[in-house]
Amino acid sequence: MHIDAHQHYWDPARGDYGWLTPDLESLYRTFGPEDLAPLRERADVQRTVVVQAAPTIEETRYLLDLARNEASIAGVVGWVPMLSNDAPALIAELARDAKFKGIRPMLQDLADDNWIANPDLAPAVEALIAHDLAFDALIFTRHVEALETFATRFPKLRIVVDHGAKPPIRDGQTGWQSWADGITRLASLPHLHCKLSGLATEASSGWTEATLQSYVGHLLKSFGPTRLMWGSDWPVLNLNGDYLLWHSVANTLLAELSDAEREAVFGANATAFYRL
Length: 276
Prior knowledge:
Elements: E1 3-7, H1 33-43, E2 47-51, H2 57-68, E3 73-78, H3 87-94, E4 100-103, H4 122-130, E5 134-137, H5 144-153, E6 158-161, H6 176-187, E7 192-196, H7 199-202, H8 209-223, E8 228-230, H9 243-253, H10 259-273
Parallel strand pairs: 1-2, 2-3, 3-4, 4-5, 5-6, 6-7, 7-8
Helix pairs in contact: 1-9, 3-4, 5-6, 6-8, 8-9
């Protein structure tokens, strides 16, 4: 079973995405399972994890509604207001849906880089742990210290770093060392995993295998093939790449792995992490 561990569906007419504006011409339309199906089939990807793209409960319910009628959706990572008094009850309610697998606050968009280190998040996190749910961390290098604090505080929480913590690929060597050191620090925490996704979006146009090789290599060295999971970040990927190209490049860059290790990265790890 091959799993795309990170992709999105959306409908701009719903009106709660914020970041999704008409200026993003290639993305400003409805994307649904019927759009991804032919790409999945050609890449031999059977199922996906759909991740929130709006910081609203309404969008989470929209994704769960899609998932009920779409067998290819193995799980949904939604959003809840983690600091709300209602957060534990909301998590318990959503957890009654078998395809609800975790939550993702949009940390990269928050004004406070240290938000995730707030101890007042504890009731929401304890609810996630109680319902065996996961946590997606959408971060840049500047969030590493705060995420370390959060992860150390909650060692029983399954955490995955989205998009390799968004390395500054288009800047060349500028920022490489701080990103690489941050990844090494995060990977030292055994309950942290990482998604091999989103790298094309961080690169300049015309990227190649060589462009991404050192970044993929460092993620693989740091997390190993047992804590790394492939994701497309489609359709955001369309801004600077395409599904089949990224899938092919990822396969090439992981060619040194054994068959079992590649199967883990391209499916088994996501299945285990998200309890699919």
